[in-house]
Amino acid sequence: MNIALLSDTHGHIDDRIRRHVEGCDEVWHAGDIGDLHVTDALADVTKVRAVYGNIDDQLTRRTWPEHQRFKAGGMKVWMTHIGGRPPKYARGILPQLRVERPDLFICGHSHILLVQRVETWGGLHLNPGAAGISGFHKVCTMLKFRIDQGQLQDLRVIEWARKRS
What is the predicted pLDDT for the residue at 34? Predict the structure, then answer.
């Protein structure tokens, strides 16, 4: 199962993002979608799983949940937008991580790329950074990986210079 993971598009999608999503079985968007045309465009390429973020409007919040918990390729996944980062998680997140013990905890919001194994709850924390052109980041980032028999493999960071439209 090939996955593209992105976040914080803030209404922006371009050919670079589409090109990196092509050939993936699913694309996961960890919030701050910005406009549903982003997830619609991604859905034209492959299956989309997404969560809403703090900048998203009511239509986006009715379309996508705040949290997604699912199994993919034998891995337990929890995706939300505002999750914090080890060891400072958003309010209420760490106790749930300790109980649920997902293999992957995915969030966005910070615009800072992070991949970290966390002993506190025993899983992998992923933040793909920001793929949009709004924010303080100078480089757009996303992650691609493969899930095979419950194992995350071939993790790659995809990055490109941010250019304003």
Answer: 96
Give the domain CATH number at 153: 3.60.21.10
Q: How far is CA 147 from CA 1, 5, 9, 157, in A?
A: 5, 12, 24, 15
Structural domain total, the chain = 1
Give the largest CA-CA distance in the chain.
Answer: 44
Distance CA 125, CA 120 (A): 11
Q: Which two tokens stand for residue 91?
A: 């309010």
pLDDT 10s digits, 69-109: 999 999 999 999 999 999 999 999 999 999 999 999 999 99
| Domain interval for residue 90 | 2-161
Nearest to 71 by CA among 92, 86, 49, 52: 49
Pairing of strands 47-50, 67-72: unpaired
